[in-house]
Design goal:
Strand content of chain A: 5-15%
Distance between the termini of chain B: 45 Å
Radius of gyration of chain A: 16 Å
Order of helices and strands of chain B: EHHEHHHHH
Largest sheet of chain A: 2 strands, antiparallel
Distance between the termini of chain A: 38 Å
Number of strands of chain A: 4
Helix content of chain A: 40-55%
Strand content of chain B: under 5%
Largest interface: A-B, 74 and 92 residues
Structural class of chain A: alpha+beta
Shape of chain B: extended
Number of helices of chain B: 7
Helix content of chain B: 40-55%
Radius of gyration of chain B: 20 Å
Largest sheet of chain B: none
Structural class of chain B: mainly alpha
Shape of chain A: globular
Oligomer: heterodimer
Number of helices of chain A: 4
Number of strands of chain B: 2
Chain lengths: 102, 199
């Protein structure tokens, strides 16, 4: 990829994608979905997009922590910050992968 | 003693509410401030679509993940939306979802009677305060975790660790994750402050 290549994400489309996926999830798995994982590997933001270097030091995140941050956003009227999208991604990834025994 | 957060039980409608509240904030700033319907991905937004296969250290492509979302048959066909790199941002069509996203900002409707410059400044201040709050909360969480990691061992990984070395690796990983997040909050706060100073 050249240096000036950029993926452009239309937010209207992204909103439609999200709605379609959440609708599908509710249809197939109901209004409440249980996730039996909690701890997960996380790559630091510094290393995440540097594919010339294999990440050496991985952190360990917690889905319960990510979900708590998202709940606070709506239940305690927190002001959204960009990182809320990362916490949302943590939870969405867990919903999109098959449940595994720990 | 600090209590670990409740288990990860999610509801679809709550997730949709979260997404609505986020109103598509971007890593480089807030859509309300940028006013664009299309976003050139920064670091923060990108993780949602694809992700990296951590266990095998595989490499995913964001572009492949994004286009796959639109190739499922019942959605719009895959296509690149927005201006070519380097061109001016397009104005959202009246009534389009893009316009809705930009006019509603980050989930908190802005009054049309307020001066746009003031609204942007207010959003930036609120974002900065929110980041300060996250930093303080995370520093407290990190301190508590270091003092008693077993209190946060929801799944019993520490209790049942096969060796002291692995147990310590897990603890170090948790500390590293929280430190990374604090560092990222600080960067975003400083970036927001610099944007404010630039006005």
């Amino acid at each position: 990829l050249s240096d000036d290549w950029q993926l452009q994400v239309d937010l209207g489309q992204l909103r439609k994608v999200f709605t379609a996926l959440i609708d599908s999830l509710e249809e197939t798995r109901g209004n409440v979905v249980s996730i039996n994982q909690d701890d997960f590997w996380s790559v630091s933001p510094e290393d995440l997009y540097n594919v010339y270097k294999t990440p050496e030091s991985l952190g360990i995140g917690k889905l319960s922590e990510s979900w708590e941050k998202l709940r606070e956003l709506v239940e305690e009227d927190e002001y959204p910050i960009p990182y809320h999208l990362v916490w949302l991604a943590d939870v969405l990834r867990a919903l999109g992968l098959p449940q595994r025994s720990s | 003693m600090p209590q670990p957060p409740p288990g990860p039980k999610s509801t679809g409608s709550a997730l949709a509410e979260v997404a609505g509240g986020l109103g598509m904030a971007t890593a480089g700033g807030l859509v309300a401030a940028a006013g664009g319907a299309a976003v050139e991905t920064g670091v923060g937004a990108a993780a949602a679509a694809g992700g990296v296969a951590l266990a095998t250290h595989g490499i995913s492509q964001l572009s492949r993940g994004w286009h796959s979302l639109f190739n499922g048959g019942r959605h719009e066909p895959a296509r690149i939306i927005g201006p070519a790199p380097g061109s001016a941002s397009p104005a959202a069509k009246p009534g389009s979802a893009g316009q809705e996203a930009s006019s509603t900002g980050i989930g908190r409707p802005t009054s049309p009677t307020v001066d746009p410059g003031m609204t942007v400044e207010s959003s930036r201040d609120r974002a900065r305060k929110s980041l300060e709050k996250q930093i303080a909360a995370h520093e407290e969480k990190l301190k508590n975790y270091k003092a008693n990691p077993d209190a946060y061992d929801n799944k019993g990984f520490l209790k049942n660790a096969p060796s002291d070395e692995i147990r310590q690796d897990i603890i170090d990983g948790r500390v590293k994750h929280l430190e990374h997040e604090i560092e990222e909050f600080r960067k975003q706060r400083d970036a927001a402050a610099e944007e404010g100073d630039g006005n």
